[in-house]
Amino acid sequence: AETGSLSIVLLGASGDLAKKKTFPALFNLYRQGFLNPDEGHIFGYARTKISDDELRNRIRGNLVPGKGASGEQLEEVSKFLQLIRYVSGSYDSEEGFQLLDKEISKHEFSKNTKEGSSRRLFYLALPPSVYPSVCKMIRNYCMNKSDLGGWTRIVVEKPFGKDLDSSEQLSAQIGELFDEQQIYRIDHYLGKELVQNLLVLRFANRFFLPLWNRDNIDNVQIVFREDFGTEGRGGYFDEYGIIRDIIQNHLLQILCLIAMEKPISLTPEHIRDEKVKVLQSVLPIEDEEVLLGQYDGYTDDPTVPDNSNTPTFATMILQIHNERWEGVPFILKAGKALNSRKAEIRIQFKTVPGDIFKCMVSDLLFSQKQGRNEIVIRLQPSEAIYMKVTVKQPGLEMSTIQSELDLSYQQRYHGVTIPEAYERLILDTIRGDQQHFVRRDELKAAWEIFTPLLHRIDNGEVKPIPYRPGSRGPEEADQLLERAGYVLTHGYSWVPPT
Ligand code: BG6
Hints:
Elements (H helix, E strand, L loop, with lengths): L4 E7 L4 H16 L8 E7 L5 H9 L10 H11 L2 E5 L5 H15 L9 E7 L6 H11 L8 E8 L6 H14 L5 E4 L6 H4 L1 H6 L13 E9 L8 H26 L8 H14 L8 E6 L17 E6 L11 E6 L6 E8 L13 H4 L7 E7 L3 E9 L7 E9 H4 L8 H11 L8 H19 L6 E3 L8 H8 L9 E2 L4
Parallel strand pairs: 1-2, 1-4, 2-3, 4-5, 5-6, 7-10, 8-15
Antiparallel strand pairs: 7-11, 8-9, 9-10, 11-12, 12-13, 13-14, 14-16
Helix pairs in contact: 1-13, 5-6, 6-14, 9-10, 9-14, 10-14
Bound molecules: 6-O-phosphono-beta-D-glucopyranose.
6-O-phosphono-beta-D-glucopyranose binds next to loops.
């Protein structure tokens, strides 16, 4: 492992993301020994004028593990908080960043070592509008200056732009200041345990290899649902909508991992080369293949205009034009304010040809569709992989039911803590592993897919259908799903005619 001083600078330190995700992730890394307090410092930077202690107090509540926290745990939190310093300044202020650099330099070699390599990680938990100026300031004033080596890296959060042009512009501006190897575009879904498992599942199992294609797979569904609305972030959300917020990044990344060819190796470049090829093979999205929704009451938020056309729900079908996937619909579905919180992937296989279990006598049973094999990968909550299989109903009769081969993580890996996505990804940035980060050409290809549709929505040419909060979303979405060939397998059973 690399040694030398490690400074992690959190820009936007007083914001929501930093408080809810980034600081807790850093704390977990610290607890597990990944942030050596002899080498590491954390700096918060933001406009708000507060003291070190005020910042520490603001984030403490998100670190303490609930009411029953032991003295030891509280002690651990306090020790971690002592690693944090705060610098206030605006995002385009030379003085602010000069001061930040001074603070970093002052602490860098103040502990055991007087000199050494300097590692500086800048995490931009900020709106993209300030990325260019912040990057410029970092470039001008805050880079690693040690003669003994080290690095400077920046982590940027989505949204990376609003469409192809704005994203390319942003990429060009940042690209002038930093090499691609220094830029970590975070998509936290790539840090989720079961997303990281996708390549293993696909490429380390003989079971799946021969079946993973258009000859066997009927359709693929990637679903994200949340049971709350845009509470408190209506202003942000309204500018972006569900497609930019969830589908263009989180769900599309999952699509890539499901659809990509086997990479030459697990090196970040080989993996990302294959992902780019998938993205470039996605056909333009037709309006008939899209169903948008907006939940009732969405515009009650004072930061959302009354006539907002922003979708809070979307179902759409993507087609991948290549030898493996031609004709297989990839259904992407995401929604806020629905009846449950869940993210899952459903890969549904074609029905068995020449089905001998189909009932040929009774009209009722005849109409029943054959149970389909399905692999379900549940990312959250309760991580699980299960395969729906048809088996004989136990008992004297010869009838069939659908059952599951079930790998539920909580049961199978009882006692194993699954790391938070952010924790894992921040560790990757410290280690210099870009595998789970979005490369510039990948980002561009992702925007190319959605930009025409997004512009049609922005212009009001495609409109969302209202749906009731707490519902499954607009009913029309199910019709789209059915048209795409998805067969509901839940509760399937076949009983022979008497
Ligand atoms: C973020 C979106 O990227 O992901 C949010 O901006 C969304 O709108 C969140 O709530 C969901 O993340 P998770 O990890 O809770 O599924």
